[in-house]
Amino acid sequence: MGLNRSVTVISHGPNCLDGLTCAVVAARYFAGHALEVIFASNRRIDEILGNYNPDEPDEAELWITDISWHEEATTRHLADLLDRGAELYWIDHHKSAIEARERGLLDIDFTDAVIDARYAASRLLFDYLCERTARQGQSKPGLLALRNLVMLADDVDRWELVIEGSRELALAVRAMDQDAAYRALLAMDSNITYGQELQRAAARVQGELAATFDLARATRCVEEVTSRHLTVVAAECEGYAGEVADRWREDFGDAVFALYDRRGDGISFRRTPDCPVDLSRLASSFGGGGHAAAAGCEISLQAPERAARLVDLVAGALRKEADR
């Protein structure tokens, strides 16, 4: 690859540790090249991909990481870019993306793609680029130094939570401005030493957690889906949706948690360990996606009583699925 090629990375955001780490991995690999990093929510991904129009496609390289698109027009646009000589790569691990490909959607003859649910996208990308580096006989110590960060991102994104520090790092990143979080991770050493901005963010987390728990309790709405022997619990939060759901798992059985995040203006789905609902499928019904046990989407909800509206929508979707 020549240094005159322009490289663009479009990764999942906002403030997703896995999406941020994908961008950091790419930045370390493409050090010395002209690189643009763009973070996209599920709501804006089609707009952002549709606006990607390099002046010289045959000198352009696009990497789409930790996210998929929704519209057929986007698929056609990406296919056209390939026909015009651009190199396009797609790295994703979400069940919704895998199922869409199996249904014949998102079907493009990419330059290369890794779509695999076994690991988070950052780990898939890291492994892919390390293998490429070795195959080409190159040396990229800056890339290899990211292994510990990648493993932390993989651990918390798939909600394994077996590596010490993974959850704390994800929480600190979520408390930061997205661009600042990206820069902090890009500067991080192999020992996962927190810089000053990360240290300040980690210190803010405890106060922010207390505030979001108070908000969630004040707005919580509960609805039974008797046809499926399930409970839907909806609430508003100010970030930290996963932590709210974790705290409430002891209070509910066979429950789906739907949490509207005021900070990101999105919905996070979580479930209790005994709940059989595939949350990626539930999120897909609202135009989102994710994993069986953790997923998300965007739903337009107006204040006040967002949680009351949300619990009705989610319970209705679950009843509709049961009637099929």
Describe this structure in words.
The protein is an alpha/beta fold and 324 residues long. The chain has 2 domains: 6-194, Rossmann fold; 213-323, Diaminopimelate Epimerase, Chain A, domain 1, CATH 3.10.310. It contains 13 helices and 11 strands. It has helices at residues 17-29, 45-50, 72-83, 95-102, 121-135, 141-144, 147-157, 166-174, 178-186, 196-219, 241-248, 279-284, 306-323; strands at 6-12, 34-40, 60-65, 87-92, 112-115, 221-225, 230-237, 255-261, 266-271, 289-290, 294-297. It is globular. The N and C termini lie far apart (51 Å). The relative contact order is 0.11. The mean pLDDT is 94.
Give the fraction of residues assigned to helices. Answer: 40-55%
Mean residue pLDDT:
94
CA-atom Rg in angstroms: 20 Å
Strand order of the largest sheet: 6-7-8-9-11-10
Q: The CATH topology of the largest domain, please?
A: Rossmann fold
Elements, N to C (H/E): EHEHEHEHEHHHHHHEEHEEHEEH
CATH architectural category of the largest domain: 3-Layer(aba) Sandwich
Structural class: alpha/beta
What is the CATH top level name of the largest domain? Alpha Beta
Number of domains: 2
Approximate shape = globular
Terminal residue distance: 51 Å
Task: Provide the low-confidence segments as ranges.
Answer: none
**What count of helical segments does DSSP give?**
13
Biggest beta sheet attributes: 6 strands, mixed
Question: Strand-residue fraction?
Answer: 15-25%
| Strand runs, count | 11
